[in-house]
């Protein structure tokens, strides 16, 4: 495009917005629409309908997203131009390319870019109150080795698209706004997930994070790779040195709930609690041919009953229970195993419910192992001599509750975009997986926005989120940021 006088350009933009706003609803604040003199539009002066009329550019978002997915391409899974997964491991050369793009793009939008000691990148668009902590959109550009194009990447791109839209429409926020690219959310290359937001939140020591070696026996550490690609920043990675005003994260749901229920947007209220236990069942090895059922202490049979009971009890209490690891000894066809160890992952959106499940299982497991009639699992079969059960807590992650102000901003923005909430298109949800937002929520008002992904599939090259759903998510994100800015200003005055 030939260069235009910049005042003229802004006037054109402002009048283009005016037309959108007029067509969307009746004018509520006529001073915004002066064509004789251009002025910035402030969020505090925008009515609901004016807020709703600020539209992101859905095509630009889609093109930008697939543009950066050229760096770190993974497995092809279909015939389409974008039917290619991602393998952009954190701090790799491809990750550096994506980061460089992030910095260049946000700087070209007038952002100030800061990089902290974990390589987290903070791009900040100034607001009226220059010294206040920014309202951010944050997510991650790194992927799993067999990842897709939307997990994390969509959240970062939607944040940048929001900044572009604010610039296009000459919107002036009361507080600074910005986008964060969190380092190594996936934990795939250096094995702690959400590690850099964790360091920022003071939950993970910096040195521990720096000294993580890459999986697969390589010599690189997280610190050496940060240095190598030029993203070892000198800003302290800390919520104290670098505070966040609020954090909104758009993410694909990574589960089937929205898709199966016709939902378009999830307003995420929090992340469920989980505890990982290691359960050890001890019985006695014996010969499978010479020992009758009455005289066995069959650790494997007991473990099977315990796992079944954990499923039934979790269902009864509205929780989840899963076993993903199971080992047994001695591991011989003709020996009844006397030793079994298995993992028990229990989850609930409510800490008290999780505790109730755990208490019930602790009591029931001991009784079931003794052969008592609990929950129907010992109803049939032969009692035998019984086994013992030991519990060991491995990981304890309490429920995260996001900030109601932020959740409401997401909900209102989504309802505005869709024009209606028929068919439960906007739903309040709890995240089943962890995200950087878990750590930001410890020190800043936070919420997340979920959009459906096909078949609920993620961490898979064929992960897919439609252009419509990507656009819906980004539009909701922008609306939530603007609403929150207005709310912050109201609260501060
Ligand atoms: Zn993610």
UniProtKB/TrEMBL annotation:
<dbReference type="InterPro" id="IPR011650">
    <property type="entry name" value="Peptidase_M20_dimer"/>
</dbReference>
<dbReference type="InterPro" id="IPR002933">
    <property type="entry name" value="Peptidase_M20"/>
</dbReference>
<dbReference type="Pfam" id="PF07687">
    <property type="entry name" value="M20_dimer"/>
</dbReference>
<protein>
    <submittedName>
        <fullName>N-carbamoyl-L-amino-acid hydrolase</fullName>
    </submittedName>
</protein>
<keyword id="KW-0378">Hydrolase</keyword>
<dbReference type="Pfam" id="PF01546">
    <property type="entry name" value="Peptidase_M20"/>
</dbReference>
<dbReference type="InterPro" id="IPR010158">
    <property type="entry name" value="Amidase_Cbmase"/>
</dbReference>
<dbReference type="GO" id="GO:0016813">
    <property type="term" value="F:hydrolase activity, acting on carbon-nitrogen (but not peptide) bonds, in linear amidines"/>
</dbReference>
<comment type="similarity">
    <text>Belongs to the peptidase M20A family.</text>
</comment>
<feature type="domain" description="Peptidase M20 dimerisation">
    <location>
        <begin position="276"/>
        <end position="369"/>
    </location>
</feature>
<dbReference type="InterPro" id="IPR036264">
    <property type="entry name" value="Bact_exopeptidase_dim_dom"/>
</dbReference>
